[in-house]
Design brief:
Radius of gyration: 16 Å
CATH topology: Rossmann fold
CATH class: Alpha Beta
Structural class: alpha/beta
Number of domains: 1
Distance between the termini: 37 Å
Strand order of the largest sheet: 3-2-4-1-5-6
Order of helices and strands: EHHEHEHHEHEE
Number of strands: 6
Largest sheet: 6 strands, mixed
Strand content: 15-25%
CATH superfamily: Phosphoglycerate mutase-like
Length: 198
């Protein structure tokens, strides 16, 4: 079986505080480190042979990918959306009109940031390329919320950004061996049930 197993990185303090976290480069917190270990164990136990581990260049994804104890290939196309002026801010600090504009228009860019459309284009290109490379086995991709949703959108051929929720250290599986991508599972978190979040 050929598949992309797309993972969201473990928790950071910014995630726990509910902040918008884009290109700010922060480490996993203690919970996130435990989540990364559980995530790697779950993927190894439930997937076929892992032929590559791919990561966004940011520390939180690299630290999550390191839990696989395998060489990691950095692919900048899986980096989180650039929130520009909103990066590191609470959602409540973004005006309702700006938030509504962002939700209504995939081409909307926060000041100094990136649009969801741009994320979808770069992630779709990366998914196509990695799918072509993994003819036998699993490519593990460690990424962030927006790129993970874009990968799901690529698999389904539709925009799913605002209709989906992605938890930290979750697993999403996309089969790629049948000529077209097929979403097999989304936002798996059962491997985290034994962990405490404090």
């Amino acid at each position: 079986m050929s598949a992309l197993v797309v993972l969201r990185h473990g928790r950071t303090q910014a995630n726990a505080a509910g902040l918008l976290l884009g290109r700010l480069d922060v480490d996993l917190d203690e919970v996130g480190r435990r989540q990364a270990a559980a995530l790697a164990g779950a993927v190894r136990a439930t997937s076929g042979p892992i032929v590559a581990v791919v990561s966004s260049p940011l520390a939180r994804t690299m630290q999550t990918a390191a839990a696989f104890e395998a060489p990691v290939t950095v692919d900048d196309r899986f980096v989180e959306l650039d929130y520009g002026a909103w990066d590191g801010r609470a959602i409540s600090e973004v005006s309702e009109s700006m938030w509504a504009a962002w939700r209504a228009d995939p081409h909307f860019r926060p000041e100094g940031g990136e649009s969801l459309h741009e994320v979808e284009r770069r992630v779709a290109a990366a998914c196509r390329e990695w799918a072509e490379r993994c003819t036998e086995g699993v490519v593990v991709v460690v990424t962030h919320v927006s790129p993970l949703k874009a990968a799901v959108g690529w698999a389904l051929g539709s925009d799913v950004v605002w209709q989906t929720r992605v938890d930290p250290a979750s697993i999403t599986r996309i089969d790629v061996g049948a000529g077209r991508p097929t979403l097999r599972s989304f936002n798996e978190t059962g491997h985290l049930e034994h962990l405490t979040t404090s």
